[in-house]
TrEMBL record:
Any one Gene Ontology BP term: peptidoglycan catabolic process
Stretches with biased composition (Low complexity): 27-40
Alphabetized GO MF terms: N-acetylmuramoyl-L-alanine amidase activity
Keyword field contains Hydrolase: yes
Protein's UniProt name: MurNAc-LAA domain-containing protein
Length: 338
């Protein structure tokens, strides 16, 4: 685990010796006293310590749904998503407790921690980013749906995948919670803070990142931990982050690089996009060369790409890899930077 770097030591200056005093000059008279010419002295400069870079890892912990009213205009639609709710408790309140407890454990190990609200700074950079949430469902599912899940972004870097694997090992061991059998959703992987190709207020694509759904606040067994033992959830998360940092910090640039193609465009007019990687499906829509596309995943054989339409309604679907070309255009939001 990285430790705080040693304090820098000021350079030792060479010893300074004052110039020897000049000889006393006497005026050859009987009445005048001898005079001495003053000797100028040199005052050595005050030693200055050379600042050393802070090599401690930086971890951003985002409190899911906290301060959603402060979302910028480009994310105005997100101001109405307050998350899960249970008997007077909003999700952000639970997330905040878990985040604070996790922060305390990480700081005790010498990690620099930044607690972040729902709004992410433009191009946010850190050695680790975790968005902390709890889940919730209604109706009959509330009695049966439970467990945790963790997701990397679409186009996840190798560093993000390693972070996910570390947390997936330590979190269930510390909490005893089962994994949600449905696993991470597309919505988790397309989380707005990950979507640097859609929003300016998002992570830098080189920031290793995951989203953790810590449990279901609507399930009675998960609620025992959420409301009575949140420190166990914090321990599971903190241990995963520390294990990742111990193994891989600082991550090399290649490991932090986002995996995926540049902007794509259809080669021909009326190119179909399907709900699944199957041409027997009814197309969701048809697009032409004027429509840029963001590739976020691919089939195992790489003959299909999962893409978003870039801008507009941001439709998600599958397109034949042979039907598009890589334009080399940068992946940036379709609107001006705020």
């Amino acid at each position: 685990m990285p430790t705080e770097p040693p304090r820098s030591t000021a350079a030792v200056l060479p010893k300074h010796s004052l110039p020897a005093a000049e000889s006393v000059v006497q005026v050859p008279t009987a009445t005048e006293r001898p005079t001495v010419t003053p000797v100028p002295t040199t005052v050595p400069p005050t030693p200055t310590a050379t600042p050393q870079p802070d090599l401690r890892p930086v971890v951003g912990l985002q409190v899911g749904h906290w301060k959603i009213e402060d979302h910028p205009d480009e994310q105005a639609a997100l101001r109405r998503f307050s998350g899960a709710y249970y008997r007077g408790y909003d999700e952000w309140e639970v997330n905040f407790v878990i985040a604070e407890l996790t922060r305390d454990q990480l700081e005790a190990e010498g990690v620099v921690v930044e607690l972040l609200p729902a709004t992410v700074p433009i191009g946010y950079e850190a050695d680790v980013f975790v968005s902390i949430h709890v889940d919730g469902v209604t109706g009959a599912q509330a009695a049966t749906r439970r467990g945790w899940k963790v997701a990397t972004p679409f186009r996840a870097s190798l560093a993000s995948q390693r972070l996910e694997a570390a947390i997936a090992t330590t979190y269930p061991a510390a909490t005893g919670l089962p994994a949600d059998p449905l696993g991470p959703s597309y919505d988790m992987r397309a989380y707005y803070a990950f979507a640097y190709y859609r929003y300016w207020h998002s992570l830098a694509p080189t920031t290793p990142a995951v989203l953790l759904e810590a449990g279901f606040m609507t399930h009675p067994d998960d609620r025992v931990l959420i409301f009575q033992q949140p420190e166990r959830m914090a321990t599971g998360l903190a241990k995963g982050i520390l294990a990742y940092l111990e193994a891989y910090h600082p991550a090399d640039p290649d490991a932090r690089a986002s995996i995926g193609l540049a902007m794509l465009r259809p080669i021909a007019a009326d190119t179909p996009i399907f709900p699944r990687a199957d041409e027997r499906q009814t197309p969701l829509l048809r697009v032409g060369p004027a429509q840029p596309l963001v590739q976020v995943a691919q089939s195992r054989e790489a003959d299909w790409y999962l893409v978003f339409t870039h801008g507009g309604s941001w439709d998600l679907g599958w397109i034949r890899s042979s039907a598009v070309r890589d334009t080399g255009e940068p992946l940036e939001p379709p609107h001006p930077r705020p």
